Amino acid sequence: MKTIKQLVVLSSFSGALAFGQKIDFPQCQSSVIGPQKIQAQSQNLTDTERVNELEQLLVDFRAIRNSLDSVKRVPTGYVDSCVREKQQMIDMHFKKLNDTTRKNPQVLKVMAQLLDVNFKVPESIQFYDDAYRANPADTESALRSLKLTAGLEFQNYARNHKSMTRDQKVLMLQKLLDKGYALASNPKFSITERIWAMEQVRGVLAANDIRPNVEESYWKRMLDLDPKSDLALRELMTVYESRSDFGKMSVYATQLAYHNAVKAEDVEKIGTALTKAEDESELLKVGNVLVKKFPESADAWGYLGVAEFRVKLYDKAIEHLEKSLGMKAKNPLFKASMAALLEEQADKAAEDKNWVEAMAGYREALKYNPNSAQLKKKTAYLLLDFHADNKFAKTASTKKDMDYALGLLSDALTSKAPLMADYAAGIRLGAHSSNPAKYRNLCDRYQSDRPSGLSIDIVQSCVSIYRSAGSEQKAKGIVDLALSKVKDAPAKQEFLKTLR
Fold it and tell me: Given CB 3.0 to 4.6 Å as the disulfide criterion, which of 87, 140, 336, 362 pairs with 379?
């Protein structure tokens, strides 16, 4: 045990004695006795008597401090000298205690409290810790030590954190963390005391910038202490979201969804966790729970619809996604899911050549996802297949559909490296559009990029486009190019016949 060599009166005592209202201190009514008399008075006491003296000094100091706290300032003089003498007496008594008495829990606690009331924080923490080690049932000393440690570490952090490395910050906080976690794990403390201990740690953690690493263990411990803590669930979700660990995030998101304290503003984060964790069955269960708790939440209906879409409950998915979007949901996932759902249904209709249903589906999907290149292509190709199946009837409706399809393909056709399939589709659509001549450049580029293997459909379409542009020479040129690739004479005749 380290002895106290000197106790100094800090500003709360000596600095506050300069001016102000005079008050009486019964603890200081006797005249100043001086160091020699202090020495003489402390010589012939038993250890028990010394402990009693220390306890009386604690009572005196607390009374003086309470009196000081009740006024702004008091005059210097006998009070200042009294305080200093009492501090000397503390040091004298403690030094004269034998080793066994010094380790007595009662003595250690009194010394801690004396140091505490004299604002000697590091020293008082040491004595409180020693008192707690000597008497593990002394929860008061343990909790006071933790509170002082938290305050001290918070000040240290605020003062030094800008010049510290991350490892230095972790090291600085570790003492506090270890102490707080040890107390929080001690079954001799009440749950209220253990949670309070964790909250002291929290006060310091909130000030540092290494939260995701330290706070995982903190909030897990807090949840162990208080399984009903909705705050711990939210904080753990935040920790795992910062790491993009959506699997672990979803565990706590699910717990929060069923919690009585779940709030409407929690829905978005809960849905995000389960969606990104790709836990469709749990998302479906949680979605149904959330819409019952928060029927006015657009996010709740949206995530339920997403879950239903993923498990192929299409009718319900459409109903609930539409409900969410009708409530002005802002999450882009809901529109994308609705578009994907309609696209998937349209794909099946297209496979069955149910052109009208497929086209209605693609057009509706484009309303929800108008920038999808894939969806645009599917719609354009569907129109091409539909009208090809109907021999490109020469009607205003056909031309209107071709113009619309070409508009959907415009990005693909004007890209730096368009696909040959897109060129081919563009040429065939252009030949039956309201202005075929506009697409002659597609035929020019198609020939230069792919001079061999020209299909009958492409040649026929380009002939129509060139003739519409008044370029009979180019129409003849593409026919000659196509014929030059056909070696068999009967095949050439058949090819020419199809062009007439």
Answer: 362
Spatial contact of 157 and 98, defined as CB atoms under 8 Å apart? no
Half-sphere exposure at residue 2, Cβ-oriented, CA atoms within 13 angstroms: 11
Tokens of 446: 């198609």
What are the CA-CA distances from residue 300 to residues 339, 376, 382 (Å)?
19, 30, 35
Q: What percent of the chain stands above pLDDT 70?
A: 75
Burial of 133 (0-12, 13-18, 19+ CB in 10 A): middle
The angle at the Cα of 218, spanning 213 to 220, to the nearest 5 degrees, equals 105
Q: Which of these, 338, 362, 341, lies nearest to 350 by C-alpha position?
A: 362
The answer to whether the CB of 289 falls within 8 A of the CB of 280 is: no
Residues in the chain: 500
Strands (E), 174-279: none
What DSSP designation does 32 have?
Answer: P
Residue 439 has what DSSP assignment? G
CA distance 105 to 249: 46
**C-alpha to C-alpha distance for 179 and 171, rounded to whole angstroms:** 13
CA dist 457 and 387 (Å) reads 13
List pLDDT tens digits, range 114-140: 888 777 778 888 888 888 888 888 878
- From first CA to last CA, the distance across the chain in angstroms is 112
Distance CA 126, CA 108 (A): 9
**In the predicted model, what is the mean pLDDT of residues 215-231?**
82
